[in-house]
Queue: 3 jobs
Job 1
Amino acid sequence: MVGLEPSVARGEYAREKYGIKIIPAYIEELHSQDRYDVIIMRHVLEHFSDPSHVLEKALENLKKNGLLVVIVPNIDCIGRYLFESKWTWVLPSHCNFFNPRSLRHIALRAGFDPVRLYQTPSPLWYPESFLRLFPGAERLRAGLYNKLTLLSLIPFTPIVMIGYLAGVSENLTLIARKT
């Protein structure tokens, strides 16, 4: 198994803890002769200023019939509708946002054949998004990162379920094939 991780510290952690061979680079910098069966980008694509280029590099590094798995936040999720600009995933580090149509489109444009696109719920950021609605709750929000428990998620379960049933969940997962 091979991982691509530009952070030296995180790469060393993955190597030590999981025995994964780590290439210390960004995908745009990858100049490997190796081709891979599967490339997984979990909450990565939204951080790039040119996600089309990133997908083209992924395509270039896959074997024929290789699979790409991309997981990104869904801009059309119920959490974003409810919390608007207070939605936690509206971060300065996110350069791009995707909905099912745009994610499928960018994959097709990069040369992939989308096999499956589905949504999954993720209630983890709901407590913080909720607290962002109240001015002066910064200290409480900061403490939340250390105290996030199942109990803090329970009040948001109905919202998560409605989003799931309505097809507006927080995560998009795309599985696409190189043909």
Note: The chain has one domain: 35-178.
Job 2
Amino acid sequence: MKRHELYIKALKTTGVETYLGYFKKVYKNVQINKRLQIQLATHEEKQTDVNIGIEMIRSGYKDEFDIALLISGDTDFHPIVRMLKTEFKNKKIWVVVPNKAIVKPLDKIADRCSTINEKHLADSQFPEKITLGSGREITKPSTWNKRV
């Protein structure tokens, strides 16, 4: 969660508007071996897709875009894209999936559907250090430095 919060702060330094949900604490069963299973506490992000969808629809009604670019492979966006295509016939919806697989429901209704490859992701990263609005400097995790 802390890394996610820092990432959102870094995005805001570039002027990106964020539409956030919240994190919910959940417990998952993890099999350690044949005899031992433990329960681990973790967090799952909730409602971000809903908030993004609401913002896309609001932006459509306010005529704020001609082409909406949705970067997600989440099939929860299918009804949102379908609604936008129904309500706003003059607007284009492009879906970009951040992995190798095109999500079938979305590629059937979007005006364009493509993928982001590893090189695109590597070339689009933040610099090594970013200064936040507060003046605090953060460093990109070294595990992100994998180049293709």
Note: The mean pLDDT is 85.
Job 3
Amino acid sequence: MAQLPRPKTKRGAVWTIAGAIVAVGVIGFVVVYFFLFPTSSPKPFGLNTSTTASAPITASTSFTGDWKVAAGSLAGYRVREKLAFLPAQSDAVGRTSAITGTAGLTQSGHTVTVNTAAYTVDVSTLKSDESMRDQHIRTIGLQSDEFPTATFKLTKPVVLPASAFSGGVVTAPVTGVFTIHGTARQVTLPVQFQLSGAGIQAVGSLTFPWAEFGMTAPSVGGFVSVTGMATMEFDLRLAKG
């Protein structure tokens, strides 16, 4: 007579249930990690070399005069953060196009000099990929509810070499007073410039300890931890007039 299958033991049933719970947990983690909290962030700003090709500099091009912030300009922050239940850090990036300001340039032959520049960014309009993060920086860290603007004022002329006049990308040190969170500091940062018949593009970034500008890393206890360094980055497009 055929034997009936032996019933599972109580211990075996427990392990089966435990295995199912672990499997569900792993699947849930994958869903949260790849869909609710994707690790991809906007890349750092870079120069668009196709602009020069589509609008080359000609003999009649003159860079002398006043230049203002044009459409396409962006500024923002980049910080490293770690969510409590994720294994690795990722970049948190917030940006805004609410930028105003002007620059005064002169040209002698193929040498262009930036003599004056002053810009204001409305940091209360910064947006990231998480509305909760955007709400937190209004009251902690950047505290944009209390300090809604960041400014930069050039204090030393910037001389661009002749290679810039041919549409090449050049890097020059830029010195000025950067004010954020109500604290002003003189800084020098490398900025990439590119001139074209369509205008001027300037891209750069400044990394600093939060404490340097009287801020504390906007960590949320038990949920999000932010490293002790912050980066301000910008992509300025300037048009004459």
Note: Residues 10-36 form the longest helix (27 residues).
